[in-house]
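This section describes the prediction task in plain terms. A model, or a person checking by hand, is given the sequence of a single protein chain and must write out its three-dimensional structure as a string of tokens. No templates, partner chains or ligands are provided. The sample shown here is typical of the held-out split.
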Amino acid sequence: MHGPAMSGWLLMALCAVTGAYCLLRARGRTGEERRAARAEALMGFGMAAMAVPAAVVAPPAWGWVLYTVLFGVAALRALWFSRRSGHHLHHLVGSSAMVYMSVVMARSGGAGHGAHASHAMAAAGGVPLLTGLLLAYYAAYVLHSGTRLIPVTAATSGGGTTVAGGPPAGGWGARPELALACRLTMGIAMFAMLLSL
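The expected answer:
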């Protein structure tokens, strides 16, 4: 969302690919896993749309209101499902952060988007304490997710070491490390977007 237009395009592509993978994950799941994958897909596509450089596609003034309503509903949904799963609390924070960024962008007149969003968000201001708390949350989330991607080794009976947990049955869509990598990617993207506030 900040810097040259190329960074906006790269962020948009990364978030769109992540959203697409989350949709594919949702197809092969049921219940709680499907709800989580759908919420992550919505977040990925929403972040991709927010990252499109303004020099190419200037967002309409009502676009920020649409983002606010869409992610407000997603936040309420995450709050409802957080009774069953703690992971939905992360979705609640993510959806709330998207609402916050949309409100800040709407206050700036919607002029900022993509490569020029940092200037518009800085002009709009945002709430420094809230932005700082969200940055701290996503920094901790990214570090925690990154450590979970480090392979764990286990000793075999022959004295050598092997990587624990080979590829699971069900194909590449069922691989937990890819789902974790997608969550890590979206956490990094959200951190980058919040930095421009």
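For orientation: The radius of gyration is 18 Å.
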